[in-house]
Structure to design on (954 residues):
């Protein structure tokens, strides 16, 4: 609760000691992370990366009936040209025949604004956004420039709130303030907690004559109502799969925060349990919901692959005393799934793989690929914190020396590892996969994509099926390697891959 | 460049434009001196805005970048930059390195030129440009990098070479078709007997770029983009420039070639001969589609939405070559009165004399209101002169506008997220044919 009462969410380096640069064995990472060794780790050679604004907009742009004002220079927020495309495809998949492009504004701060402050321009933008689009909510998203010239976006929002019909949501995503882009999740939850969870007075009015039956029904309903926390990299298929499993337990599911309507967020306070599907995404909010509203949470396993989905489901079922039901679901799902996977296992067995993306997705997928009989030769999570340990432990059980490269993309380290470890397959985050492709190896983007599922049992099947498909004909990347080159000098590939990483922290 | 807030900006920031320019140069490695997220932000914009333009040689998430942090902002980032450049030249192979700043490092006033100078003294080919995002849009970043290139990379050449020209004014990535657009014009200039350096195509090399100062003329195919750089070029290297609006299709390209021919005192017969040959080729193919044009009544009311290059260029082609009815042309930038005067002058002189309504608007959702003011709305009349059949040539933001008026739609101007672009260009005679292919393919797509 104390964090939420502060003006901004703290950066994750401070709150969690999160690590952004590491190269070495998994067991050393585990040991030294506990000692706080990596909080100030850095690199002497860096590549253009991702700041908290990018995951920030990927969540905020998805909110329906919401206009996002990116307060900054003209380029910040431009990721919308890619992120909007994904959101548009999602709308079409949900059956919308006339999908709208997402709506966002840039305050377009210029040299004059840098000198004289951007608050006046922000004020004008908020008022015009409210007048022009009449949205349910207007997000005021702060990027680097307002953070350094000292614009008070919270003050502007508070001052303007009485003048506009939209709910104003100030969100701090100043890129230079943290190296852990996952701080964006906290920043968004911070604003949701402060601005969207209160019920209006008319919502709380009780009927004059109490309806005891209705009250009792509602009480029963809420005892089975859960908050399922989604992430912006989930597909519609992922959400449907996880909802299907929770509904099989007899639970009613509401999804937050991605694509949730701002007016609906407050119902998150009525649930019996909050369920994370990506622990590093949600702890800030779920701990708040527990402290303020008494809603317990599960935040441990990431439902990717069979064993993880089983454990995720078991933990939820245990809370509701539904263990037996869960075991029945698990038994029937896994029996069917294992039969379906049979044709793929031989082809996948022993294939070497490197994975690179967000912490939980990378580690949990690696666990699943090990279950499938593949050999995980290295993992490259975008950051590392305490929530990754559950999955790292599972990897260490199979190979205590597994190389871990904590890096938000930084493909030069990846290129070196690929050259040395010679994987048969690379699973990477959007827009970094090309660097594995140029090494000539087949690539599976580490997400569900437009038509596939990644999470749960159906996701476990899809991952295996897609890897099997991609390995069938790797000609494109093989030819690519023969004809284009990577930008590094040859001797880089013989060098120690982590030589530019500097440890730093409380060792 | 607009000064007010923008709905879904149709441009990179200055750093983004600078990065695209550096990435498009041969054998060149950019080094960003900026916060850690700028690289990703620009790349996400580029993939979805520039017809799936990828990272290329050393772009995307591989761009060397100082990734300055809070402590660098407080204590200054010069030390971090120096270390970054040191490691970059050791690790990343390039024949030219371009340091470019972002918002943070410009605001704290890091002196990058002294860092660059220090490496240049050690023999590294390296230049620097201050391109903080708040300084302007992607077009500005393009101009700033060109200025740095002309100032600090070109070899001084007091002796000019007859028949050598430089060509620019098409902005990499802001124009998704930049390579094709430059290539088409380059080939035409070759036909006039000129040797062309165009910086950003697969036919350009760093040696020719380094010797660009021996050209007798700089040809800028834009009235706006790269003009400041042309002035710097002229001042330092005494090469004059001529600017001509981006030529699309035969009418504009004929005039373009005549203008260049006259300026370089090329024998008019040579110019006429080239034009005649190109026109013959062009109409050979038009002859092939003339049946469909007339049988299927392919004349359209047109709404054109684009930047200072594309809006007038597309309008002229549609009105003067294709015989379309260019009702509304929306220029998505420019508050500067002198630029507005120039565009108005251009569109007032169409050979078709079609009266074009010209407006300046960048917010996609507002364009429909401009159109509603221009064309009387349907109010249940039995006989209604509808804006139909219609076609919208714009960015992918105009998809909704096109749908709302039942018009065809083709994305040409930034952002281009619903097309994949490789080597296609719309300039010149070949470009005109390519554009007709794309426009008419939309019209027959459901047949």
């Amino acid at each position: 609760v104390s964090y939420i009462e502060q003006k901004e969410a703290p950066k994750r380096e401070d709150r969690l000691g999160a690590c952004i640069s590491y190269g070495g064995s998994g067991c050393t990472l585990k040991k030294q992370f506990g000692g706080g060794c990596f909080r100030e780790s850095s690199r002497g050679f860096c590549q253009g990366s991702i700041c908290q604004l990018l995951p920030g907009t990927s969540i905020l742009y998805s909110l329906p009936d919401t206009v996002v004002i990116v307060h900054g220079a003209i380029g910040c927020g431009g990721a919308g040209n890619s992120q909007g495309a994904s959101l548009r495809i999602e709308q079409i998949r949900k059956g919308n025949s006339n999908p709208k492009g997402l709506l966002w504004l840039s305050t377009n701060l210029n040299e004059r604004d840098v000198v004289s402050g951007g608050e006046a321009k922000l004020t004008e933008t908020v008022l015009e956004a409210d007048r022009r689009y009449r949205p349910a909510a207007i997000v005021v998203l702060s990027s680097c420039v307002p953070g350094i010239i000292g614009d008070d976006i919270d003050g502007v929002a508070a001052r303007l709130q009485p003048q506009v019909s939209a709910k104003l949501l100030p969100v701090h995503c100043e890129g230079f303030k943290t190296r852990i882009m996952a701080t964006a999740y906290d920043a968004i939850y911070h604003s949701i907690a402060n601005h969207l969870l209160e019920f209006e007075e008319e919502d709380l009015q009780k009927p004059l004559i109490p309806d005891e039956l209705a009250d009792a029904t509602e009480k029963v309903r809420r005892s089975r109502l859960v908050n399922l926390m989604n992430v912006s990299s989930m597909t519609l298929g992922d959400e449907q799969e996880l909802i299907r499993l929770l509904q099989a337990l007899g639970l009613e599911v509401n999804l937050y925060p991605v694509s949730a309507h701002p007016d609906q967020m407050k119902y998150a306070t009525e649930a019996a349990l909050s369920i994370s599907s990506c622990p590093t995404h949600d702890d800030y909010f779920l701990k708040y919901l527990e402290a303020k509203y008494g809603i317990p949470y599960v935040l441990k396993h990431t439902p990717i692959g069979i064993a993880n989905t089983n454990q995720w489901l078991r933990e939820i079922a245990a809370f509701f005393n539904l263990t037996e039901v869960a075991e029945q679901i698990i038994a029937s799902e896994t029996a069917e799934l294992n039969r379906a996977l049979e044709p793929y296992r031989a082809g996948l067995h022993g294939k070497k793989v490197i994975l690179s993306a967000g912490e939980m997705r990378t580690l949990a997928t690696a666990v699943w690929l090990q279950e499938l009989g593949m050999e995980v030769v290295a993992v490259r999570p975008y950051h590392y914190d305490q929530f990754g340990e559950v999955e790292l432990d599972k990897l260490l059980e199979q190979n205590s020396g597994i190389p871990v490269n904590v890096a938000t993309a930084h493909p030069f380290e990846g290129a070196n590892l690929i050259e040395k470890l010679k994987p048969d397959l690379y699973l990477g985050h959007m827009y970094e996969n090309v660097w594995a492709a140029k090494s000539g190896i087949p690539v599976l983007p580490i997400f569900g994509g437009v038509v596939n599922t990644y999470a749960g049992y159906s996701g476990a099947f899809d991952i295996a099926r897609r890897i099997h498909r991609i390995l069938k004909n790797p000609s494109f990347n093989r030819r690519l390697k023969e004809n284009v080159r990577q930008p590094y000098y040859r001797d880089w590939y013989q060098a120690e891959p982590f030589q530019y990483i500097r440890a730093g922290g409380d060792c | 460049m607009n000064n007010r807030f923008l709905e879904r900006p149709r441009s990179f920031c200055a750093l983004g434009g600078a990065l695209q320019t550096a990435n498009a140069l041969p054998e060149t490695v950019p080094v960003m001196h900026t916060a850690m997220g700028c690289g990703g932000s620009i790349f996400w914009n580029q993939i979805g805005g520039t017809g799936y333009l990828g990272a290329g040689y050393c772009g995307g998430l591989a761009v060397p970048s100082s990734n300055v942090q809070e402590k660098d902002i407080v204590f200054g980032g010069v030390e971090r930059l120096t270390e970054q450049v040191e490691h970059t030249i050791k690790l990343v192979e390039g024949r030219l390195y371009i340091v470019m700043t972002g918002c943070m490092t410009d605001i704290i006033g890091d002196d990058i030129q002294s860092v660059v100078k220090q490496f240049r003294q050690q023999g590294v080919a390296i230049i620097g440009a201050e391109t903080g995002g708040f300084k302007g849009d992607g077009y500005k970043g393009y101009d700033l990098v060109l200025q740095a290139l002309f100032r600090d990379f070109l070899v001084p050449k007091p002796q000019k070479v007859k028949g050598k020209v430089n060509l620019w004014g098409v902005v990499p990535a802001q124009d998704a078709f930049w390579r094709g657009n430059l290539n088409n014009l380059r080939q035409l200039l070759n036909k006039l007997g000129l040797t062309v350096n165009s910086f950003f195509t697969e036919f350009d090399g760093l040696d020719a770029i380094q010797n660009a100062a021996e050209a007798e003329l700089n040809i800028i195919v834009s009235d706006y983009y790269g003009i400041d750089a042309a002035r710097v070029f002229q001042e330092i290297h005494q090469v004059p420039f001529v600017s001509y609006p981006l030529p699309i299709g035969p009418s504009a390209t004929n005039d373009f070639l005549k203008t260049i021919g006259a300026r370089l005192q090329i024998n008019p017969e040579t110019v006429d001969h080239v034009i005649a040959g190109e026109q013959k080729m062009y109409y050979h193919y038009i002859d092939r589609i003339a049946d469909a044009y007339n049988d299927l009544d392919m004349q359209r009311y047109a709404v054109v939405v684009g930047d200072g290059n594309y809006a007038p260029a597309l309008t002229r082609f549609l009105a003067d070559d294709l015989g379309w009815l260019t009702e509304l042309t929306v220029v998505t930038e420019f508050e500067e009165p002198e630029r507005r005067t120039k565009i108005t002058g251009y569109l007032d002189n169409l050979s078709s004399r079609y009266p074009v309504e010209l407006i300046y608007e960048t917010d996609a959702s507002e364009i429909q209101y401009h159109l509603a003011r221009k064309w009387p709305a349907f109010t249940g009349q039995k006989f209604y002169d509808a804006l139909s059949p219609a076609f919208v040539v714009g960015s992918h933001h105009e998809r909704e506008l096109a749908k709302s008026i039942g018009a065809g739609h083709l994305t040409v101007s930034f952002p281009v997220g619903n097309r994949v672009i490789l080597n296609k260009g719309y300039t010149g005679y070949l470009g005109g044919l390519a554009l007709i292919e794309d426009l008419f393919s939309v019209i027959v797509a459901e047949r």
